[in-house]
Amino acid sequence: MPLDTSTYSLALLRLDGRRWNELRRLHAQISTQAAADGSSYLEMGNTKVLCTVSGPHEGKAGGAGGGPRSTQAKIEVEISFAGFSGVERKKRQAKDKRTSEMSHTLTQSLAALLLTHLYPHSTITIHLSILSQDGSLLAACINAATLALIDAGIPMTDYLCACTTAAPPTSAETEAGGDPLLDLNGQEEQELPFLTVATVGKGHAVSVLIMESRVRMEKVEGMLAVGVEGCKRVREILDKVVKEHGKRFA
Amino acid sequence: MAPPPSLQVNLSPAELSFIRSSLAQTPPIRLDHAKGPKDFRSMRAECDVLPGANGSARIALEDGTEALVGVKAEVEKSQWRPVPGESARLTAAGEVTMLDVDDAADKDENTKGKGQNSWVEISVEVPGFRDDDALPVFLAAMLTETLLASGELKDRLYINNRFHWKLYVDVLLLSPLLSYPLSLLSMTTHLALLTTRLPALKSEKDEDPLFDDDWDASVQLYGKERQQIEKPPVIVLAMAVGSNIIFDPSKEELAVADAVLAVACTTSANSGGRIVSIRTVDPPSHLTPPGVPNAMNSATGGKVPTSSADALTQRELLSNSGVWTPPRGGMKRSLLSGIVKMVVEKGGVAEEVIEALQRVEIG
Amino acid sequence: MPREAEISVNEREFIQQALRENTRLDGRAFDTFRPLELTFGDEYGVADVKLGKTRVIARISVEVTAPLPERKFDGVFQIVTEFSPMASPAFEVGRPTDAEVILARILEKAIRRSNALDTESLCIIAGLKVFHLRADVHIIDHDGGLIDASCIAVMAALQHFRRPDVIVEGEKATVLSVREREPIPLSILHTPLCVTFSYYEEGEIFLVDANLAEEQVRQGEIIITMNRHGEVCQIAKYGGATVDALSLLNCNNVALEKVKDMSKFIQERLEADAKRRDAGGLMAELSAENDR
């Protein structure tokens, strides 16, 4: 049944009934697949991502070998969109520029996060299957990859956690604009300028920051601050998932 | 179709010979010796996992193989094509409408024969394979063929003369290829189709279709009210070893098969189990390396055959000695009818599997 | 696949040590661009940008096509980037490297998605005929800072370009040649420009406009696109070492200053070019006086 959203704007609620700084339900599982070295399943609202990690293993011939690069493990990220993931059924080309930008982001951020120098001459392959898209896709991919890499037991410095924030819509009553919104769904992402931020650890160390839409410079500060706070909350949730999983072996 | 390299097993001729001889015993001893010849591997299944799809299901086997299927339906404009005697049928349909058609059976009668094969599109994605590699294409073709075989499904996609549903079935193998995935993919597709719902139609006859927003009012593609309708078909793999028939073979068991059959079967309330299609699958056993018997090995005091003809005759004599020789394929007629009977009979494999999957949907 | 030659360990150490002592190899301050040169071709819409040793040429061309069915009132605008092997042995035609994909994406986001060009003004007859504008970016010489240079080149070329005028009578449109009617400049809504920051020493040192050697040593980069009105069009930090959130905001302020300088520079060059083109102006041409 469609939500009755008529009272929402008065109570300063969003279309799905959340407050400005509320995350969607973040559900995650690790070790979901017996056959992979590491795997995870992550839901941020209706965005659902499945991640499997294999490796470190011997790289394909010619890929990892040669040059001083082979003192570190090489990270490969593959992203595949299921045909049914969007609203309309569409086959995404594997070599789409947007997809390669996403995998480039993951490769770059994980290369700095993982202790790759421990695995020279090897390759770590991360495969992400996007099962359902409803906003914050890149953030969900980053979170899922972090969990799967933890499950695979690959040493890393800290959690890499991501979320999205949007500049508040400017309405007549709130001249200065309201509070920035945290963790956007697909609808909000289309309407508002937003950024994806990923931090390492508990502090303000920003690893990934991507913004694709035009916004006043003054608003970026607020968005970033809320985003960093959101990442901290995501980190707590992910940490809980990992510790719950660990208890099984206690 | 030759099996892909990842399905090849690295077993020595001695191991292959051991597996084969234990499978050929009566009763056969399987690799997992708790299982009988008709037992399937255990699996975890869930359905309706994706909010954005019309129907979806996920099945994970005990060895870690996992598949996910999402079904998406979109309204598409039909291509007009002249049908002989169409005008006659149209008036007939009109009359029936006046007589108030709520009865699903009558409605089915109207749409009979109007479906087209292109309205169902299946794509299979296997990690590590390109879309146009032989394996995914072959798997997709097998699944499509069985789904369309009865012709009932495509007729149900008919909306009116100008519009129809287009059904996209996306089959994803989530794990690496650990065993021959055909029956797993087919079972997952079956489950996904069982849960598939289409929005209820509000417009009438040849108007532009208008649908009910209320998801609770949607109709199931394989609905309960259509009890007499056949369930979507399921493909089961059966293999023959000697005179034994073994269902749902594992990867290692496949490596010693004489022949492998993919049997697509379905059930319906009134007619019980039926077979939709049968195909032979080329088992990886053909490509296993043969063992070298002592008599042909100079290291063990034997004599290396001098010519290839000589080697061939010596091999012929070996057939029952226990030294591994890759099977040449082929299957006795009695075995074939044995498999068919085991699938179709009352309480047979077809009913058992489909009932088990049905329970997932309810539970 | 050919690869960029790796920088040697000695050079790497040297550059880092120098940076720690507040020195860049070419003696620039940390927040200055290399000398920027901008020239325009004889034709409209050709811009040649030199940023130090990096050289990028952008060329705008136009043709008439049918619009996309889902965007009936918008013209088509496309940016095509090409890395030619001429610029660096690491580039290969037909096999885009990561760097090329990123450049294309950044230009796409910075210029196209931020609506720098008013595509509606390119519409001739809704649903039937629109102008298809194509910006070709050619990298001629590569010494770092490709994104910044390409963005300047495209924006300068767009502002320099003139499209032919059209007369619409009902369903019929006539494109008038340059001789018949003075061509029309494009309607540019704002001028986004990119500033790339490279950082070192765990985000302690930020460099503006790093050259190739500095790019190879850096721990990561942040690409900020802004216009001179203080609107951020795009930010991209694709991983790499982490940076404190506050210094990111600081980068925004530096970027705004740089963008203002560059916009002014582009404007000056455009004006100089316009002056060169019409010596005397229309009045001189229409004058009845003849040199006898």
Main features:
heterotrimer; B: 363 residues; alpha+beta; Ribosomal Protein S5, domain 2; five-stranded mixed β-sheet; four-stranded antiparallel β-sheet; 11 strands; 30% helix; elongated; C: 292 residues; six-stranded mixed β-sheet; 15 strands
Structure described in brief:
With 250 residues, chain A is of the alpha+beta class. In chain A, 28% of the residues lie in helices and 27% in strands.
Describe the protein's architecture and organization.
- The complex is a heterotrimer of chains A (250), B (363) and C (292).
- Chain A is of the alpha+beta class and 250 residues long.
- Chain A is 28% helix and 27% strand.
- The termini of chain A are far apart.
- In chain A, 48% of the residues are buried.
- Chain B is an alpha+beta fold.
- Chain B is built from ten helices and eleven strands.
- The longest helix of chain C has 33 residues.
- The interface between A and C is large, with 39 and 37 residues.
- Strand 10 of chain A pairs antiparallel with strand 14 of chain C.
Q: Which superfamily, in CATH terms, is the homologous superfamily of chain B?
A: GHMP Kinase, N-terminal domain
The CATH topology of chain B is Ribosomal Protein S5, domain 2
How widely separated are the two ends of chain C? 66 Å
- CATH C-level category of chain B: Alpha Beta
Order of helices and strands of chain C: HEEEEHEEHEEEEEEHEEEHH
Strand adjacency order, main sheet of chain B:
1-2-3-5-4
**Poorly predicted runs of 5 or more residues of chain C:** none
CATH architecture of chain B: 2-Layer Sandwich
CATH topology of chain C: Ribosomal Protein S5, domain 2
Annotation, overall tally of beta strands of chain B: 11
Helix coverage percent of residues of chain B?
25-40%
**What portion of residues of chain C belong to β-strands?**
25-35%
Q: Please give the alpha-carbon distance between the first and last residues of chain B.
A: 38 Å
Rg from Cα of chain B: 24 Å
What's the number of structural domains of chain B?
1
Coarse structural class of chain B = alpha+beta
The average pLDDT of chain C is 88
